[in-house]
Design brief:
By secondary structure, the chain is α/β, with parallel strands linked by helices. The chain has a single domain, classed as Alpha-Beta Barrel (TIM Barrel). Helices cover 28% and strands 8% of the residues. It has 7 helices and 5 strands. Helix 4 crosses helix 5. The longest helix has 13 residues. The chain is globular, with a radius of gyration of 19 Å. InterPro entries: AKR, Aldo/ket_reductase_CS, NAD(P)_OxRdtase_dom_sf, NADP_OxRdtase_dom. Belongs to the aldo/keto reductase family. Pfam families: Aldo_ket_red. This is Aldo-keto reductase family 1 member D1. GO terms for molecular function: oxidoreductase activity.
């Protein structure tokens, strides 16, 4: 089983010593990326330092995920960083038993993903937005050509109107679009603030102003895997 699959029935069968009453079924279990890597190493490389790729069979991987759900190891199953073509491959798979309930992708006011969002809506797939507040400025893996999201004047001006932060406005924007957000923070105050987004609503005009911020540029490009046959970001969406 390739490392693109978060959970494998082979790793966690019902008679596994690791399956106990203290380990409830996961919800959801997610295929973390369509670009899979072989073996136990997190980032396997050859003697020249080049990444070693697994010949990805997305349909076979999805069948393993379906088996996990059927075995009671996952309440629901989804994917991450799949583009439309890769989603259609799963949705059109002969004998499909369970379609993905979610697709976890980068989504924020500078990268609103309107076409992928609409496609997923049509197929009852929930978009889960990672990096909803932008991300770190580590240029070793982040595209720093796009400015820091939380410094945006539009987000800050709207936040001032509601006595909210730019981060809270960005989160509220996606929530109102039907996008699940998963902000990451180690700061207790910011974690509390991330939950304090249900006591105000953005107007239609404000939603359009924020939508207009879309630059269609990713912060998280995963360029180290751009030559993988299933690298998902070569397609339009």
């Amino acid at each position: 089983m390739s490392t693109s699959t978060l959970l494998s029935c082979q790793w966690l069968s019902r008679d596994s010593p690791f399956r106990t009453s203290v380990l409830p079924p996961l919800s959801p279990a997610v295929v973390l990326s369509p670009s899979s890597l072989p073996g136990d190493a997190i980032y396997p490389r050859d003697e020249n330092g080049k990444f070693i790729y697994h010949e990805t069979n997305l349909c076979a991987t999805w069948e393993a995920m379906e088996a996990c759900k059927d075995a009671g190891l996952a309440k629901s199953i989804g994917v991450s960083n799949f583009n439309r073509r890769q989603l259609e491959m799963i949705l059109n798979k002969p004998g499909l038993k369970h379609k993905p309930v979610s697709n976890q992708v980068e989504c924020h006011p500078y990268f609103t993903q309107p076409k992928l969002l609409e496609f997923c809506r049509q197929h009852d797939i929930v978009i889960v937005g990672y990096s909803p507040l932008g991300t770190s400025r580590d240029e070793t893996w982040v595209n720093v050509s796009s400015p820091p999201l939380l410094e945006d004047p539009v987000l800050n001006a709207i936040g001032k109107k509601y006595s909210k932060t730019a981060a809270q406005v960005a989160l509220r924007f996606n929530i109102q679009r039907g996008v699940v957000v998963i902000p990451k923070s180690f700061n207790p105050q910011r974690i509390r603030e991330n939950f304090q987004i249900f006591d105000f609503s953005l107007t239609e005009k404000e939603m359009k102003e924020i939508e207009a911020l879309n630059k269609n540029v990713r912060y998280v490009e995963l360029l180290m895997w751009r030559d993988h046959p299933e690298y998902p970001f070569n397609d339009e969406y």
